[in-house]
Amino acid sequence: GDSVTQMEGPVTLSEEAFLTINCTYTATGYPSLFWYVQYPGEGLQLLLKATKADDKGSNKGFEATYRKETTSFHLEKGSVQVSDSAVYFCALNNNAGNMLTFGGGTRLMVKP
Amino acid sequence: GAVVSQHPSWVICKSGTSVKIECRSLDFQATTMFWYRQFPKQSLMLMATSNEGSKATYEQGVEKDKFLINHASLTLSTLTVTSAHPEDSSFYICSAPTGTSRETQYFGPGTRLLVL
C-alpha cells in the first residue's frame, strides 16, 4: 500500500536558519503530494501541494518540489521564524476515495 | 481556501456518557468527510469515511458501534462517541475534500475530548 516517510523530529533551529524536512513516499501511479502544518492545539492547515512530477508548491516562503525519480517531496524554507514552530505533515493522495496517507509528522522548534 | 468548522472545540465528560462532535463545511458542499483521531505527538489516524446519504466506511480496528457517524446533509457530519471511557480521550479532527478534482482536503480545527 501507499506510505509516506518523514524525518523524525524534533528539528530545532535558530531564527533565520535554513530548513529542510525530508519526505519520501511509496505509491502506485501518480499521487498528488501535500504538506500540512499543525500549530499547537489546532487542526491541520494546507501549506502547499504539487500534483505532478517536477511541480513546485510554494507558500509563505516554504517550497517543495515533486521529484518522481527519487519519490521525494522535501520541504524547504530559506529563513525560518519563531512563528514557524509547528508540526509539519507530508501526505499523499492517490485518489483512493480521496483519502490522504500521512507521514508521522515532524516537529519544528525555532528559537529566537 | 475552503472552511471546515468543528463543534465543540473542547469537551470534558464523565465516563459512560456519550459525546457528539459536529463537522461542518461552511462554504462548500461535502458528500464525503473524513474523521481522524490524533494522540499526543503522533500522526493522524483515519477512523472512518463519512458518506452523505449512506453508511460510513470504518477503518480496520475502529468499532462502528462505539463511534457512530451520521452524515445528515451535504454540509454536516457528526461523530458520536458512545459510552465514552478514558481511553477515548483524544484529539478528533474532521476533513472534507473539495476543489475540481477533490484531491485537496481541508481540515477542521479539531475537538479535544477528555473523558474522566
Description:
The complex is a heterodimer of chains A (112) and B (116). In chain A, the strands form 3 sheets. In chain A, strands 2, 5, 6, 10, 11 and 12 form a 6-stranded mixed sheet that branches. A 4-stranded antiparallel sheet of chain A has the order 3-9-8-7, with no helix packed on it. Chain A is built from no helices and 12 strands. Chain A is 0% helix and 51% strand. Chain A is mainly beta and 112 residues long. With 116 residues, chain B is mainly β. In chain B, the strands form 2 sheets. In chain B, strands 2, 4, 5, 6, 9, 10 and 11 form a 7-stranded mixed sheet that branches. In chain B, strands 1-3-8-7 form a 4-stranded antiparallel sheet, with no helix packed on it. The interface between A and B is medium-sized, with 23 and 24 residues.
Note the topology.
The complex is a heterodimer of chains A (112) and B (116).
Chain A: E1 3-6, E2 11-14, E3 19-21, E4 23-26, E5 32-38, E6 44-50, E7 56-59, E8 62-65, E9 75-77, E10 86-93, E11 100-102, E12 106-111
Parallel strand pairs in A: 2-12
Antiparallel strand pairs in A: 1-4, 3-9, 5-6, 5-10, 7-8, 8-9, 10-11, 10-12
Chain B: E1 4-7, E2 10-13, E3 19-25, E4 32-38, E5 44-51, E6 57-58, E7 67-73, E8 76-81, E9 90-98, E10 104-107, E11 111-115
Parallel strand pairs in B: 2-11
Antiparallel strand pairs in B: 1-3, 3-8, 4-5, 4-9, 5-6, 7-8, 9-10, 9-11
Largest sheet of chain B: 7 strands, mixed
Total number of β-strand segments of chain B? 11
Helical content of chain A stands at under 10%
Helix run count of chain A: 0
Report Rg of chain A.
13 Å
> Biggest sheet of chain A, in brief?
6 strands, mixed
Please state roughly what percent of the residues of chain B sit in beta strands, choosing from under 5%, 5-15%, 15-25%, 25-35%, 35-45% or over 45%. Answer: over 45%
Provide key terms for this protein:
heterodimer, A: 112 residues, mainly beta, six-stranded mixed β-sheet, four-stranded antiparallel β-sheet, 12 strands, 0% helix, globular, B: 116 residues, seven-stranded mixed β-sheet, 54% strand
